[in-house]
Amino acid sequence: MFEQLCGISRYGNAKMVVPALKQHFRHDRIKFFVTSSIGFYLDNEKGAFDPDDPQNLVPTAWSAAGESGTATSPGSGFQIRGPVHPINVMEPMVWLGRRISAERPEGKAGG
Hints:
Layout: H1 2-7, H2 17-24, E1 42-43, E2 48-49, E3 57-59, E4 70-71, E5 78-80, H3 91-103
Antiparallel strand pairs: 1-2, 3-5, 4-5
């Protein structure tokens, strides 16, 4: 997914990111995480995720059935549409911590 996103970047130079990572880092030390600080939109009426209507960050001009969200910042042009539900925010830190602790030599205390 990351490679596909890099391939469709506005200026085309993001497609160089993955080859650069592969050139300078060991393959087993590279991992990509899909994260979101606001998560997907959960329909208030259904109380569930709708794959046909997932956007929780929408342009301020957006309106559906009279819904309105909280502006993310003054003049930003976008607003958060519904409640915030972070996704995979801690997973990169957990993965990194496990990698570091697994590579620590026996008998060495961290600090």
